[in-house]
Every structure is written in structure tokens, then in C-alpha cells.
């Protein structure tokens, strides 16, 4: 039982790693009790130069049969040369190898919606004026096709 006296809200932009770990650990335990096995694993694909330094790539995770793409970035010099498609395909292939059947992500109207559409993603939702003057676009793809 948590004593209710002395509780205080503490907003921060510099969280303690242990505090973050507590929230994540407890949410995972909650999810495991009520749903499928919680099998979340990071999935990143880095594009590396000849010296082995990351020059771009994608970050995300897999869980419950889904690939969740978070951040995808390539420098301007590597765009329009097919590298983006190869990075995305590598992430999707690894996700399929992990048993994923679908992928989802969000992008913004000033980012890469058309790139994802060319690679089979479809829009399933939008948030208008987020950020102001633009929209957030939620997309998904069936990886079993």
C-alpha cells in the first residue's frame, strides 16, 4: 500500500533513469497480466560508413506481432538513392523474422508520407494542426502480403 500523505507531483525534463525504469517495469508487468506475452524488443537498422560509423538509419521495436517504427533519418546526400528503401526493407525483414505481421508508424506532413506510401504503407489516422500548420499522419502496413 502506498501512503497517500506526502505525495507530490514532480514534472521534469531530466528524469532519473531508475524512475523511468520503475514506470516501464510496472507497465510491462501490468500488460503481461492482462494480455499476450509482452515480447517488446528494440529493432534498429543503422546505415554505416566504411569506418563503421552510423550515418543514418531507423529505430523502433517489435511487440505483439507489430513493428513499431520510431525515428528514421538519412542525411540529404543519401536520399533519393534507394538507401531509405533498403533501410526500411531491412527493418521489415527483421520484424517478419521475429514473427511480426504488421507495421505502424507516424510521420508528419512535412516529412516522408509519400515515401512510406511508395513502400506500401496506408494512412489510418491524422491529427490536424500537429505541429501547428501541419498534420501528424499515422500509417500501417501488412507485412504478411
TrEMBL record:
| Keywords from the named record | Transferase
**Entry superkingdom:** Bacteria
Any Pfam family = Acetyltransf_1
Q: Does the keyword Transferase apply?
A: yes
Question: Which molecular function GO terms apply here?
Answer: acyltransferase activity, transferring groups other than amino-acyl groups
Tagged with keyword Signal: no
Please give the InterPro entries that the UniProt record associates with this protein.
Acyl_CoA_acyltransferase, GNAT_dom
The UniProt record lists the N-acetyltransferase domain at 7-144
Protein name, per record = GNAT family N-acetyltransferase
Organism from which the protein derives: Lichenibacterium minor
Amino acid at each position: 500500500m502506498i501512503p497517500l500523505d506526502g505525495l507530490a507531483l514532480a514534472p521534469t525534463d531530466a528524469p532519473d533513469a531508475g524512475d523511468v525504469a520503475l514506470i516501464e517495469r510496472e507497465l510491462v508487468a501490468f500488460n503481461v497480466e492482462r494480455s499476450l506475452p509482452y515480447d517488446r524488443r528494440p529493432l534498429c537498422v543503422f546505415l554505416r560508413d566504411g569506418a563503421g560509423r552510423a550515418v543514418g538509419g531507423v529505430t523502433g521495436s517489435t511487440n505483439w506481432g507489430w513493428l513499431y517504427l520510431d525515428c528514421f533519418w538519412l542525411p540529404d546526400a543519401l536520399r533519393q538513392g534507394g538507401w531509405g528503401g533498403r533501410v526500411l526493407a531491412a527493418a521489415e525483414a527483421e520484424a517478419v523474422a521475429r514473427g511480426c505481421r504488421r507495421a505502424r508508424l507516424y510521420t508528419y506532413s512535412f516529412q516522408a508520407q509519400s515515401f512510406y506510401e511508395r513502400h506500401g504503407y496506408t494512412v489510418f489516422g491524422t491529427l490536424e494542426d500537429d505541429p501547428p500548420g501541419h498534420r501528424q499522419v499515422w500509417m500501417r502496413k501488412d507485412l504478411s502480403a
